[in-house]
Design goal:
This protein is mostly helical. The protein has 2 helices and no strands. The chain has a domain of 40 residues.
Length: 73
């Protein structure tokens, strides 16, 4: 570990998200479709696998914040 190089993480490390957040509801079918397409992409882009796993936690009751990142884009 002493000779290892630091690597940037693909997600923000200080971001706090939870299922209990309040916000505008999103159509669950639309969110499931997005997550399903991203799961398909993980076969050719394994670098996004962790991110897809994070957003798939909210597939049951997604809200607007789950469709965007904390920076608003």
């Amino acid at each position: 570990m002493e000779n290892s190089k630091p690597v940037d993480t693909p997600v923000e490390t200080n971001m706090k998200s939870s299922k209990k957040r309040q916000g505008a509801k999103v159509d669950p079918t639309y969110f499931q479709s997005l997550v399903g397409n991203l799961c398909y992409l993980t076969a050719i882009r394994p670098d996004i696998l962790y991110d897809v796993g994070l957003i798939s936690r909210y597939i049951e009751s997604p809200i607007q914040i789950h469709l965007q990142n904390e920076r608003g884009y």
